[in-house]
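Worked example 2:
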Amino acid sequence: MECAGHVAGSAVFIDLYFAKKSKKMTARNTYKIKSEVWLYPGMVGWHFMSVPKKQSEDIKKRFGAKAKGWGSLPVAVKIGKTSWTTSIFPDKKSGTYLLPLKAQVRKKEGIRQGDMVNFGLVIKA
């Protein structure tokens, strides 16, 4: 996993979809991340990407108090040309947040288990 951290010039990476949908969008809640797609053990078909530990710690520190059920945080995500809203979930075992990757997104972007994927993440909490 690799992460560039906060994105100062987020307009280059995050399109107007996020600006219109997320009134709280700032460079402080926007991340540019690279992570490997993995299959959740024991749950056939559930694909995830992990937010790197350093960025997960930062997200928890700054937004953890605003977490919803199961510690989830609402986010907007962009991979390639595909944008959607979902939530990230804390994983106590790894100390990271997990981003579920919908089958529809994987199909549209040609993503498979084991692929390294660049994505933009906007915390909407």
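The CA atoms of residues 20 and 85 lie 13 Å apart. The first strand starts at residue 2 and ends at 6.
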